[in-house]
Amino acid sequence: MVTAFADPFDALFNLQRALEARLASDWLQDLTTSRGPFPPINVFQQGEDILAIIELPGIDKNDVQIQAKENTIRISGRKAVDFPEGVSVHRRERIWGEFDRTLSLPVQLDPDGIKAEYRDGVLALFLPRAERDKPRMIAIK
Amino acid sequence: MASKQELQVQQKRELEKKEETTIPARIFVPTADIYETEDALSVILEMPGVERNNVDVRVEDGVLYVEGRVDLSKYQNLQPLYTEYNVGHYSRSFRLSSKIDQNKIGAELRDGVLSLTLAKVEEARPRTIQVK
Fold it and tell me: CA dist A90 to B11, B33, B40, B41, Å?
């Protein structure tokens, strides 16, 4: 069974291709109040709801604030990189500083249902679509 | 260290390898900080999304190899709507300038940041020579 080997790799390859293809997507065009700045965000659809995944390695959970209002999400905080005293630094590539980013989504969110999870340096924001914003089926009488 | 600094997005650098991999997946270079103390070399690598069990660290012929694999099962059934970064495994290697004690390599993974402490062997430590 060759397919048994191909399967997990296909999952990665397909995801990467999908991510690459969506770089040009205009889904959030002119909607993010600050597109581009730190931290980079990937937005996924999960059924009716939205999942935002943000790579933020080495952040103290207490240093990140997440605010939600109607259809916007604000992520702000501080990323610190510390070196011990009296060492000789060979390489310094990791970035540090403060960040503040607001993301406007084209759907209304349910602020009470928002969940944030930080694990292995990845922040996942589960953003449920507000009930009143969901499309409704109209029965024809 | 100044506390105010606007953070810029760091684009992920793709790993350039002499050989191609059999899997057509992307591998990225984790950003690294390296510093040296009198008795050890510390390497800090950012590998967001990598779990503890999926990290490989080894030193071979004076070269440090670090590999981290991400778990993609979490991304299944998700449909990308808008993306700004790509996801992939991590790999990076460094040629070490000083001799490292193979048995004294400490590794700690926390919040996607891998901290390696490579203890130098006794003869590689700096010595002060007294002039008589």
Answer: 21, 8, 13, 10
